[in-house]
Amino acid sequence: MRVARKLDEMARRKLLHVNAMTHDAMWFAAAVRLSGIDKANLVARAATRAAAEVEAQRLCKALGLPGVRSFANLKRFLREALAAMRTPVMRFGVSFPAHNRMRWKASRCFAHDCAKRLGVIDDFQCHVFERLDGWLEDLGITCRAVPAVDGCLMHARGACAREFRFSFPPQRRARGTA
C-alpha cells in the first residue's frame, strides 16, 4: 500500500499499462504453445472484440458522452479513448483529414513485435483493430475501412495504416458563416 501512495498518477498509469501488456503477451504466447497459432488468433480476436464492447460504454460514461451521434462526437471519443489506451510500446496516430474520414498510422506495434518474437508473424492475425471495430460496432457506428485486415499490415506492407470512412450527415453551418 505504501508503494502505491508514493507513485504519482502518471507512474501508476504507466505501471498498469505495462502490466496489462505483459499479461497480453504472456497469455498469447501460452495460447500459441498450448493450442497453436490458428486457435490463439481466433481467441485473441474474439476476446479483444468482446472487451471492446464493454470498454466503449465505459469510455462514453467517463467522457460524459451519452452516445456518439455526430462526427464531431466521434472524433472526441476516438481522440480521448485512444489517448487513454496509448502505451510506450504502441506508437500510433490518428488524423481526421475531412468530414467522415479518419486515418490511422502506427510506427510501432506491440502485437506485431510480440508475434515476431514468438516466430509466428507469418500466420499472425492482427487483433488490434478488433478493439477499434468493437468500439464502433457497440456505438452503432458503421464505417468502411481500407485496407481490410488479413494477417498483420505492418508485416505484410511494412506499415500499419488504414483509412476509415464514416457515414454521418454533413455538418450544418451556423447561420451567418461562409
Highlighted features:
alpha+beta, Muramoyl-pentapeptide Carboxypeptidase, domain 2, four-stranded antiparallel sheet, 4 strands
Structure description:
With 178 residues, this protein is an alpha+beta fold. It is built from 7 helices and 4 strands. It has a 4-stranded antiparallel β-sheet. Helix 2 runs antiparallel to helix 3 and helix 3 packs across helix 6. It is globular. The model has no long low-confidence stretch (mean pLDDT 89).
Q: Return Rg in Å.
A: 18 Å
Helix content: 55-70%
N/C terminus separation:
58 Å
Annotation field: number of helices:
7
Number of domains: 1
Mean pLDDT figure? 89
What is CATH's topology name? Answer: Muramoyl-pentapeptide Carboxypeptidase, domain 2
| Biggest β-sheet description | 4 strands, antiparallel
Q: How many DSSP-defined strands?
A: 4
User: What would the principal axes of the Cα set say about the shape?
Assistant: globular
Q: What strand line-up does the widest sheet have? A: 1-2-4-3
Q: Beta-strand level of the residues, as a percent range?
A: 15-25%
Broad CATH class:
Alpha Beta
**Known CATH architecture:** 2-Layer Sandwich
* N-to-C order of helices and strands: HHHHEEHHEHE
The low-pLDDT segments are none
Q: By helix and strand content, what is the structural category?
A: alpha+beta
